[in-house]
Structure formats: C-alpha cells, structure tokens
Amino acid sequence: MILHTDWRHIPASARNTVAALGNFDGVHRGHVHLLDTLRMARPDHPLSVVTFDPHPRTLFRPQDPPFRLMLPDVRAAALGGQGVEHVFQIPFDAEFSRLSDEQFVNDVLVSGLRVAHVACGADFAFGHRRHGNIDRLEALLAPHGIGLTIVPQLVDEGGPISSSRIRRLLQEGYPERAAEELGRPWSITGPVMHGDQRGRLLGFPTANIPLTQHLEPARGVYTVRVTLPDGRIVPGVANIGRRPTINDGRESRLEVHLFDFNEDLYDQTLSVALIALLREEKRFSGLDELKAQIAADAAQARAILAH
C-alpha cells in the first residue's frame, strides 16, 4: 500500500485506479464490503481509497470531543491489509471544504487522481456544504467516461453497520459487540508515555498511552490484548478513565498492565485491543482497597483470556 497526501501531485503509477470514496473510520465490515464489491466489479484496475484527514467533522465541529475509531496511519495500514494499493488521504482544511461538488470531481478525481471508476455508499455527500449527492456524482463523472458503483450498506440483525453505530457501542460499554461490527476487536494505538509510577508502587506497573484523537469508550476496567512493535501479543488488563481514587480527574487516559511482562516500553507504540469490560470506573476508599480490586480485576481478565 502506498499513502499519498498530496492529491495535486500524484505519480503516474498511482493513476487509473478504481477508487472507493469515504472516511473509512474503523475500516469495519461495511467498509470491507464496499471494497470487495468494487474489486469484483472492476478487477482490471488497482484498488484505491479516497479519504480525508482530518475528518471533516473535526473542521466543522471543533468543540466536539474526540471521536475517531482509528488514527490516519492505522487506517491506511488497515486498508492496505484489505488489498488497497493506493490510499489518497486528502488534507481536509477550510480551503478544501470550499470546493464545489463540480470542483471536487473535476479537479480532484478527474484531473488530480485520474481515476478510472468510482464506488461509494448511497449516502455519500461531497462538495461545499455537502451539496453533491450520488446522482450529482454520476452526472459529473459521466462526461469523462468514469463509471460509478453505488454499494448498499451491509446490514445485520441490528441494522446497517456504520462507524457511528460502532462508536455508540463502545461508549455504552459493549466492546464485544463493537468487535462483531468491526470484524476484529477495537484497538487504541499510541506511544507509551511516562506516567507518575503510581501503578508500579501498587504492584501493577502500567504503560500509559494518551487517547489523543481516539474516541473515549465507556470508562472502566477492560480485559485487553496488547500488540507490541515486534508483533508479540501480550494479555493484560487496562483502565480507561480519570482514576478518581488517586488522580485529579482532569484527563482521561489508558493505563495498561501487561501480564508476566517486564520490559521497557517507553516511547514504543502499542496497539491495545479491548476484549471485554470488567467493571465501570469507581472511587475507592483508599489505596489498599484499590490494590485489592486491581488484583481481582487481573484475575478475572486472566480467566476470560484463558477461554
């Protein structure tokens, strides 16, 4: 997979692709369905994705809390894992947001990327103030001989699979159900930062990872599997929240205790997959009670991961 972040200067080797349009946050089963449909419809061209960073919602609603299921580099890698050869990650800024629907098609898709065919969901909207819809997209592409495939949303017993539905499941404390929609457990990926060493004093040293632009799921204690930079997977238990017993409560964080592990992880990037929510965040009367609860959480997490 090759990541392109400048749509105005695309090398000739990246042109003439069949392109799926969308944000692809999470690269969930619905996104995979879209990619597979496009691949089967046009197997004669390389598969690509046209997406955006930051997410348009970040520009238009900066007051909203972080909501991303995936950071851009993780998204690009996940798309590559689905057979996407080129990811066109368009910088979505105020200038780009003012492009009309016609400019988006003519300047970006036709002149910039020179795509051979396009696919998207039925609700795809584009151009200034989301003026363009799929009918408009088809009409603008047709004069250039570029076809359009509209792919219906993938539906299960709960309805259409979508990024917003997965976010809601995570915020409500159902990581197992979110994993079914994603096709894999949801992960938070980030570098290990120096903390206050409080976990080490309690007998449970933790790796501290900032949530940054990730969605904050339900606060509490989770069973997790941690993927290290070298590919090893280590089981563990994690807390997501504001540590009401010992912290000032101003910033949520992810703190992970890796079972039977004693290596220096500072500044390394970990991927922490949430397997199950053990309990909600709560305040304890003191450090002794907290320490006992952490031991119980760890035992429960080990039991879950043993099955």
TrEMBL record:
Q: Name one Pfam family in it.
A: Flavokinase
Q: Which pathway does it operate in?
A: Cofactor biosynthesis; FAD biosynthesis; FAD from FMN: step 1/1; Cofactor biosynthesis; FMN biosynthesis; FMN from riboflavin (ATP route): step 1/1
List residues of the Riboflavin kinase domain. Answer: 181-306
Could you confirm whether the keyword Transmembrane appears in this record?
A: no
Q: Per its UniProt entry, which superkingdom is the organism in? A: Bacteria
**InterPro entries referenced in this protein's UniProt entry, alphabetically:** FAD_synthase, Riboflavin_kinase, Riboflavin_kinase_bac, Riboflavin_kinase_bac/euk, Riboflavin_kinase_dom_sf, Rossmann-like_a/b/a_fold
Catalytic activity from the UniProt record? FMN + ATP + H(+) = FAD + diphosphate; riboflavin + ATP = FMN + ADP + H(+)
Annotated keywords:
ATP-binding, FAD, Flavoprotein, FMN, Kinase, Multifunctional enzyme, Nucleotide-binding, Nucleotidyltransferase, Transferase
Q: Which residues cross the membrane?
A: none
SUPFAM superfamilies per UniProt? Nucleotidylyl transferase, Riboflavin kinase-like
The Enzyme Commission number assigned here is 2.7.1.26, 2.7.7.2
Query: Which family does this protein fall into?
Result: Belongs to the ribF family.
The cross-references to NCBIfam families, in alphabetical order and at most eight, read:
PRK05627.1-3, ribF
Name the job this protein performs: Catalyzes the phosphorylation of riboflavin to FMN followed by the adenylation of FMN to FAD.
Question: What is the protein name for this chain?
Answer: Riboflavin biosynthesis protein
Per the UniProt record, the source organism is Gluconobacter kondonii
